[in-house]
Amino acid sequence: MATETLTLGKALNTGLRRALENDPKVVIMGEDVGKLGGVFRITDGLQKDFGDQRVIDTPLAESGIIGTAVGLAIRGFRPVCEIQFDGFVYPAYDQIVSQVAKMHYRSQGKVRIPMVIRIPYGGGIGAVEHHSESPEAYFAHTAGLKVVTCANPQDAYVMIQQAIASDDPIVFLEPKRRYWEKGPVDLDAPLADAYPLHSARVVRPGADATVLAYGPMVRTALDAATAAAEDGRELEVIDLRTLSPLDLSAAYESVRRTGRCVVVHEAPGNLGLGSEIAARITEECFYSLESPVLRVTGFDIPYPASRVEEEYLPDLDRVLDAVDRTFGW
Fold this sequence. Notes:
Helix content is about 35%, strand content about 20%. It has twelve helices and 14 strands. By secondary structure, it is an alpha/beta fold. The chain has a seven-stranded mixed β-sheet with strand order 3-2-4-5-7-6-12, sandwiched between helices. It is globular, with a radius of gyration of 20 Å.
């Protein structure tokens, strides 16, 4: 069994390489993905090995990238589009919502759009305006799209391959602040035996309170659980992994045991994923709850300048404060 220690970014690169090797219909396209290897070097070396007909440097035109990919997908290809930064996706939003999400429904199931839209998202890297945002709720709200996000190198390696192999259009959110974090990756495990793409996972068991997170906030939640353990409090941390469709079966089971739940995400709280998750948990676990479901989120303001982003982003202290509040009811 070939298990290697890779960064999350290198795990994505390796997963993309495997997908290109396994299916000649897979093509990667985006701004600077070829010779440069992407601004985060996620596609580094792929154009050199697979050629510029399969790893395509596009013009700076997100709408054009997605529109072209729709045509390719209809013709049987499996395009993987890179949006260079989260804040650049909005010119392509019309194509994503009006074409990508609706084509299968509009054709009464006759047309599939097997494409992946990769978006580095979230804060924590001190970037300038339009380079750190959390747009996941826009896409999770859009019927016809599936939305997933990885939180560690093993999931990055497997989930990108699963997304590319899917016949549905998938928005694949990559937590850019975690690109350089390392972890073990099993490179030989059969993809068919991998953990299901659209399933949440318990990443740390606990008995006192449930913390739900995804993407960049999973590490923050785990750090909070480690700190809480020093005070004798066991937090169960669940990585949601899939935002649409939401898989809350593990969350329901956990909350019925712990009686307390905190949802954590970087995006603003107003109409964020946390709102929907809190509503569903309240509906399903009402008689088990010892306190309201609480949310720890970004604030309801435009993403702030890099020099103050640490004041905006949820951190360990804010998560622990919310957990403390659940014990105060």
